[in-house]
Design a protein that fits this description.
CATH topology of the largest domain: TIM Barrel
Shape: globular
Distance between the termini: 29 Å
Number of domains: 2
Number of strands: 6
Strand content: 5-15%
CATH superfamily of the largest domain: Aldolase class I
Helix content: 40-55%
Largest sheet: 6 strands, parallel
Strand order of the largest sheet: 1-2-3-4-5-6
């Protein structure tokens, strides 16, 4: 999505979100564009923005990346969630840098999609208490919750919103056995959804359920094979009764 489309999406969400908080994803190596999107998110009454490092500049020194984040923090009128996803950005936010960024008053939390289980304890130690911690790899959700994390910002939740929200809700209500049983039951579905390209697979599933009018994706993304989509849809129906 272009920056303008992201702005427009945030604005349109105001009439649809109800009591939900909206977090606008910001993925751009441009400092000026990142700050502009933060301002647009604030204007649209979003709760926060989700900010990747400047992914194009993989050769940038840690000091430059640190200063880039701090510039956005200082200029953003809205709270910022730092997003670590080295498989996509080529930049792994190490614990030293993470601790520095998390100490800034306008850094309200961190999302980690690395899939590195060792980060669960390490990130919790590096990020001050009271700030949000979201895991991106949903297969680690229950382990993350037990490690003191806040929940997940999830691609699979496009297809499993009730399941994943109930797992987190029940965990914090102290209903640990129920939360863990639900997680165990839906883990094969999570793994199946993660086994094919997202969001292409999610869109095919949702179009089949008539949640979306069509499953098309934009280039450079391409549609998933119909047989793969049907296999995952069949698993969701057999394991979770979803169709």
């Amino acid at each position: 999505m272009s920056a303008v489309e992201k702005r427009d999406l945030a604005l349109k969400s105001r009439g649809l979100r109800g009591k939900l908080d909206v977090i606008l994803g910001v993925a751009t190596p441009s400092l000026d564009e990142a700050v502009w999107l933060c301002k647009q998110a604030a204007h649209a009454d979003c709760r926060a923005v989700l900010l990747m490092p400047p992914f194009y500049f993989k050769e940038a020194e840690c000091g430059g990346i640190r200063q880039w984040f701090l510039e956005v923090f200082d200029k953003s009128p809205i709270g910022v969630i730092v997003y670590n996803f080295p498989q996509r950005t080529g930049i792994d936010i190490d614990l030293g840098l993470l601790a520095e960024l998390a100490a800034h008053p306008n850094c309200v939390g961190v999302k980690d999609s690395s899939g590195n289980e060792a980060n669960l304890a390490a990130y919790r130690q590096a990020v001050p208490s009271g700030k949000l911690l979201f895991v991106g790899n949903e297969t680690l959700l229950v382990k993350a919750l037990h490690s003191g994390w806040s929940g997940t910002i999830s691609g699979a939740a496009n297809c499993l919103p009730s399941w994943l929200s109930q797992i987190v809700k029940q965990f914090f209500e102290g209903k640990l056995q129920s939360a863990e049983e639900k997680f165990k039951l839906c883990l094969p579905a999570i793994e199946a959804l993660r086994s094919r390209p997202q969001p292409a697979l999610n869109k095919v599933i949702l179009a089949g359920w008539r949640v979306l009018p069509e499953p098309h994706v934009r280039l450079p993304l391409t549609p998933v094979r119909q047989a793969d989509a049907e296999s995952v849809a069949r698993l969701l129906k057999e394991t979770l009764g979803m169709d």
